[in-house]
Amino acid sequence: MSNKNKNKDYNNASLRNRSKEDSNENKDKPLAKLLVVDDDPDIVQVLKLGLLKNRFLVNSFTNPEEAFQSFKSNPEDYCLMLSDIRMPGLSGIQLARKVKEVNPGVKVVLMTAFEIRDSEFSKVFPSTHVDGFVQKPIRIGDLTNKILSVIGETK
Length: 155
Hints:
The chain is α/β, with parallel strands linked by helices and 155 residues long.
């Protein structure tokens, strides 16, 4: 084998190794940073752990006002906010409105124990843009798929 062919084989092998390294890096790379808000600490904990295992970075809060203050300090860091609708003080709908005022590009998914249709919601709350709804309880795998579909990623 000539030196020219040996170099070619070496380069192909190094490219294959590099692409394996790249895919391993991508496997560990977070998919997105999420803001998770629910007034129930148990739900927040389960959601945070499940979403972390599915490669999301998660900032979680049980107080919607605190969540908003954190969001305001770094609004460009977040890709999506996942929030319960019914919370004391600031509802998920009010929080969604405030978050969108600060960063209109952030996606919002609201959680509720009740079934909500997007078309019904937009008639009742025409000034609030919400990107999706999930009904509790929800499996982490289903929630992950919903979040990925809203942010336009595939797992």
